[in-house]
Design a protein that fits this description.
With 207 residues, the chain is mainly α. The chain has one domain. Helix content is 64%, strand content 3%. It has seven helices and two strands, in the order αββαααααα. The protein has a two-stranded antiparallel sheet. Helix 4 packs across helix 5 and helix 4 crosses helix 7. The radius of gyration is 23 Å and the shape is elongated.
Amino acid sequence: MAIKPSKRGQAWAWRFHFGIREIERAYKASRDASDKEVSGINEAAARHQAKVDAGEATWSEEDEDGNLVYDYGERLGEQMYDVEQVLALIRNAFVITLHHFVEQRVGAQLPKKKYDQTKGFSWLKGFGWTPMEGGLNQLRLAANCAKHSEGASASQLYALRPDMFDEDMVKGWGAAPAYDTLKLTDAHVDEFFAAVQASVPKMGPAL
């Protein structure tokens, strides 16, 4: 049986994807407890709604004078808000981690082992690969915004992707694009992982 020779960059690409898989596993493990809390809150809301529909419960309770004494929906909303704050921290942390991974792995191959995005793209293209330049640039800007808050990266990211920010705060309150207005969703994080994965072809370990 003929043994196919390794392709240029194959060993590096295999190690690159191995590292991404480890980060992805850590991301899923880190949010597991919060995801279960979200499911529990949604299930509690659905159970209570069924009781309301059956005439066995109400969403709020009032005293004999008509004053609100308890709001079940508000309580669930507060619980969901608390969980979402934790998930936001996890998303931001792993966006930073993912960019640092790209920065470290690609940067180690560049002159003086210092990462430069433009030179990094050129190095990847040197293998005939097609880096997802737009996605990797947005990842870099989002990571910088999560780390440094207000500044050039936040402004550039907002110009490219206003959907990654809380539009009510930016447009309604006049708040600047910054850490406090950054509002990454699960879909955004998945998009970043996909951009990094697609920038380097998947290959088996080099022989």
